[in-house]
Amino acid sequence: MAIIVDLDVELAKRKMSVGEFADAIGITVANVAVLKNGRAKAVRFTTLDTICRVLRCQPGDILRWVPDEDGSP
């Protein structure tokens, strides 16, 4: 997958635990782990909005696109 989730980086910058973050955004620790580890197939805009509000960041601070290793778009 070419979408990288940098949630762990943003949490580390803020010294926020996964549990604190999960409570703050209103989802389970297990679902935060799915997001954090890049296993999520989709993210609702409302969830992304809440993440950005809690972390006071932009969506691009959480998600980034990188080309596949074979160079295909």
Describe, in plain words, how this protein is organized in 3D.
The chain has 73 residues and is mainly α. The protein has one domain: lambda repressor-like DNA-binding domains (434 Repressor (Amino-terminal Domain)), CATH 1.10.260.40. 52% of the residues lie in helices and 8% in strands. It has 5 helices and 2 strands. The protein has helices spanning 7-13, 18-25, 29-36, 45-55, 59-62, and strands at residues 3-5, 63-65. The chain has a two-stranded antiparallel sheet with strand order 1-2. Helix 2 crosses helix 3. It is globular. The N and C termini lie close together (11 Å).
Rg of Cα set: 13 Å
Which structural category do the helix and sheet elements fall into?
mainly alpha
The total domain count is: 1
Oligomer: single chain
CATH topology: 434 Repressor (Amino-terminal Domain)
How would the global form be characterised? globular
> Uncertain regions: pLDDT < 50 for 5+ in a row?
none
CATH superfamily: lambda repressor-like DNA-binding domains
Question: Strand count, sense and closure of the main sheet?
Answer: 2 strands, antiparallel
